Amino acid sequence: MTDPQNWQSPTNDGQNGPRYGEQVPPLAPPGGGLQPGWNAPSGWTPPPRPGLIPLRPLGFGTLLWAPYQVLRRNPKATFGSALLIQAVVTLVTLVVVGSVTFFALSRVDSAPLAERDAVQAGAWVGIALSALIPIALSLVAGALLQGVIVLEVARATLGEKLRLAQLWRLVGRRLWPLALWTVLLSAAAVLALGLVTGAVVLFVTLGGAWVGLAVILGILGVLLFIAGAAWLGTKLSLVPCLIVLERLGIRKSVRRSWSLTRGYFWRTLGVQLLVAVIINVVSQVVVTPVSILFSVATSLVDPNASFDAYLPSVILYVLVLFVSLVLGAVATVVQSATVALIYIDLRMRKEGLDLELARFVESAPGSGATDPYLVGAAGTEAPRA
Fold first, then answer.
1. Which among 168, 164, 152 has a CA at the least distance from the CA of 344?
2. Pseudo-torsion of CA 174, 177, 179, 182, nearest 10°?
3. In contact, 247 and 174? CB cutoff 8 Å
4. CA angle at 155 for the pair 152 and 159, rounded to the nearest 5°
């Protein structure tokens, strides 16, 4: 039997070893024959890459627990982004609105009695205008955060793990469509509430029998607003995913979200509503005992209130604010991840996206495989971790 170590290629002119670029035949195990483990690999095999979800249509239970796995799988990029963005928005709100409020109220206190009403009216207008700055910032920041979570879920499904800077850079290219969509949704909600509130106030000012009509109109208006918000919110909930992952404009994203949710409205609404209820219950369970325990501890440590009167309130406010920021960051990540998972699940069910995702995962790095989330047009090579 030929010694495998002294094997010579029949075409290498007697020199040991094959020439550069030649195929080396598989070595046979002692005793002849092929056994498991002795066959040469026939091609490139991708390394095992654990993904966030199985590449098949998702069950109801998977849609509920998978969003929490997003936090565990890449906490720095997901929870870190949410906490950082919410902390910045809160800090800007406290600094801007707090400073303007302090300055405005100081002017009211120091104003002459004859001018106090005019100064007070101007103070309230200034405070309201100062609130527009954190509101605008929160809209842009919320759009950015939602895009980051959507992209993280999409890449985690493929077994990839992007860093925070990578996620922010990729989402930054689609930030303005996301922000514009958030502004449009907020403006529509404010306009609808404004119409109902304006009609109620108008009827109340008329007095008499109009007051009863105002009450009925107010109740019906609120119920219609809730129903309309639930319906439109569900039908359009996939728009951020489409803007980020499929790189569509707002109009095309609206049409496509409407189409994808057709036939799955109640399932989509049920998952989002159940996740929101779970998050709110957990938040109340955490925040309420913290407030009660801290109040009791403050009274035990300082029963005679020897500290300044405002000090316990300030400490309690800071503690509750910190807990609220943490819980708010978790809630934002989980809710945004839920929407992204619903989007992926609907495309698996209606368009066979699971096959495209599996094909992308099995492709070799550098093979030029296009982004599996793009529809129709050929895309650029998708980022790999």
1. 152
2. -130
3. yes
4. 120
pLDDT (tens digit per residue) in 344-372: 999 999 999 999 998 888 875 656 668 88
What is the residue range of 294's domain? 52-173+264-362
Distance CA 217, CA 211 (A): 10
Q: What is the pLDDT of residues 176-207, one digit of tens each?
A: 999 999 999 999 999 998 898 888 888 888 87
Q: Are 372 and 353 in contact (CB under 8 A)?
A: yes
Contacts for 80 with CB less than 8 Å, ≥ 6 apart: 164
Long-range CB contact pairs, 282-287, < 8 A, 24+: 282/327, 283/327, 283/331, 286/323, 286/327, 287/320, 287/323, 287/324, 287/327
In a domain, 243, yes or no: no
302 domain-assigned: yes
CB 77 within 8 A of CB 167: yes
Nearest to 159 by CA among 381, 357, 22: 357
Q: Which strand (E) or helix (H) includes residue 198?
A: helix 175-206
Provide the 3-class DSSP secondary structure of residue 13: coil
The answer to whether residue 124 sits within a structural domain is: yes
| Ordered DSSP codes for 72-96 | HHSHHHHHHHHHHHHHHHHHHHHHH
Q: Which two tokens stand for residue 112?
A: 């002459």
Tokens of 304: 């005679």
Please give the tally of structural domains in the chain: 1
- The answer to the question of residue 120 being in a domain is yes
State both tokens at 26: 């598989």
Structure-token pair, residue 115:
């001018």
pTM assigned to the model = 0.78
